[in-house]
Every structure is written in C-alpha cells, then in structure tokens.
Specification:
Elements (H helix, E strand, L loop, with lengths): L2 E6 L20 E2 L8 E6 L4 E7 L4 E5 L11 E5 L12 E13 L2 E6 L26 E6 L2 E3 L2 E4 L4 E8 L1 H4 L13 E4 L13 E4 L2 E8 L10 E5 L4 H11 L1
Parallel strand pairs: 1-5
Antiparallel strand pairs: 1-8, 2-12, 3-4, 3-6, 4-5, 6-7, 7-8, 9-12, 9-14, 10-11, 12-13, 13-16, 14-15, 15-16
GO molecular function: serine-type endopeptidase activity
Protein name: Peptidase S1 domain-containing protein
GO biological process, one term: proteolysis
Length: 248
C-alpha cells in the first residue's frame, strides 16, 4: 500500500508570535525512552526538527497543515521511536517523504512516503477518539516533543519531553480576556491559568490514550491568558478513517 502522511488543520490560523512559538515544549519532564511509541519527528533535509506528529495507522502520520513545506520538491524525513533527537544510534526508524504532494481537502494536504512502516516493540499507533467525542474541562492530557523548552526560545530539547495539561472550556478560551471569539467548534484549548507549559507544533494532544488534538497555534507561548489551541481530531475522525482506508 502507498504510505502517506496527512497534514490536518481546519483553519489557516497561525501564531501571533510567529513560527518559533509553534516549536516549543515548555515545562514538563523527560520521559522514559520509547514510552511514546507513536510520536514522530519531522525533519528537514538538513536534519532540523521542525514539527511533531503521531502514527495513527501503519501507513499514516497525523500532523498539522502548517508543518508542510513551502516547496513541493523539498525532501523531508520522518523518524520514529526517538528519545535523543540528535543521536543517530537511537534512530530506529527513518522514512523519507517523497516530493509528491497535492491538495485533497480543505482540511489539509498529503505527502507520500517512500516505504511502509513496521510495528515492533518500539513503534505503535495511537488510536483516534470516536467521532464527536469531547474531553471535559479540567481533564488532563499529555503533549510530547523536542521543541524549545523556554518561552524565549533558545536551544531545542535534544531529549523527548512531555507536559500534562488540563482541558480549558471553549467558553473560557473564547472570553474577552482570552481569544475573544476566535475559538471554533473544531478547536480544543488546553493549558494552565498560570501559564508556563506548552507543546510541540504538529504533535498529538493525547487524552485517555487517544489523540484528541493536534498542537496548532496560540497567541503567545505558554501564556496564562492564552492557552494552547489544538485541532479537535474527534470532529474529523470519520474523514481521517475514510482517507486512510481509501488509500491502504
């Protein structure tokens, strides 16, 4: 079967602080090696990690639409089962994205990978939620990645880190003190009212063992007034499965 990665983003919204604020994993802790077997690192040809993603089937990776490249011919690589981002000895799986890409849906674009992935003790998929499922306010979810570890940027983390974040209600997130109406039904807000924690762009927001969100955007990184905004995967579950099964 053809192997592709689907890049999803329901709205073309980007961070007010620019691209760097989407590449951060603020706060959190270093996780045990290979404890997030579904987590994917998207890297440019130079080896630069620029986005996260999650393995949702043997042949498909879920990430954010803004993680696509500007050039359809740019070579990207996808690495799974990483713990130390820059340590070649820990790169258990590497699959290169082909130059092929085309638009198929207003929700995103797709890119073909050059060979299928193999599940083993270090690599597995993360399940999707049921269509329309909702996480209640104050339930904790997890985001993992290798992004910047401080709000000011600096160096990215070379070790996989995770943060646990509480779900924020759409009402609070849409208040005049926060995003003032910009949050739609296709978005999830998560974070602390004290700020200080944020996620890696394109990476999964995992709640109760399922990928409920995709790290998408925010007004400022790890800000108490502006929690992180995530694509609500449950609203697109049927479309995702339809796309996967049509191609496999």
């Amino acid at each position: 079967s053809q192997v592709r990665s689907e890049l999803l983003q329901p709205l073309c919204l980007c961070s007010a602080d620019g691209q760097n604020s989407l590449q951060r994993i603020i706060g959190g802790y270093i996780v045990a090696p290979h404890s997030s077997k579904y987590l994917v690192s998207l890297k440019r040809k130079t080896g630069f990690h620029f986005c996260g993603g999650s393995l949702v089937s043997r042949s498909w990776v879920l990430t954010a639409a803004h993680c696509k490249t500007d050039s359809p011919t740019e070579s990207l690589s996808l690495r799974l089962s990483l713990h130390f981002l820059w340590n070649p000895s820990c790169e258990l799986h590497e699959v290169h994205l082909s130059p092929y890409a085309h638009n198929e849906s207003p929700l995103g674009v797709s890119k073909q990978l050059n060979r299928p992935l193999v599940h083993n003790a270090f690599v597995s998929v993360v399940p999707l939620p049921q269509q329309g499922a909702v996480m209640r306010e104050c339930r904790f979810c997890q985001v993992s990645g290798w992004g910047y570890t401080t709000p000011m940027g600096g160096a990215t983390s070379d070790t996989l880190r995770s943060v646990r974040l509480p779900i924020i209600s759409s009402g609070k997130c849409n208040s005049t003190a926060s995003y003032a109406g910009y949050i739609t039904k296709n978005m999830i807000c998560a974070g602390f009212n004290t700020g200080g924690k944020d996620g890696d762009s394109g990476g999964p927001l995992v709640c109760e063992g399922r990928v409920f969100g995709i790290v998408s955007w925010g007004n400022s990184c790890a800000s108490p007034r502006y929690p992180g905004v995530y694509t609500a995967v449950a609203n697109f579950q049927k479309w995702i499965y339809k796309t996967i099964f049509r191609r496999e």
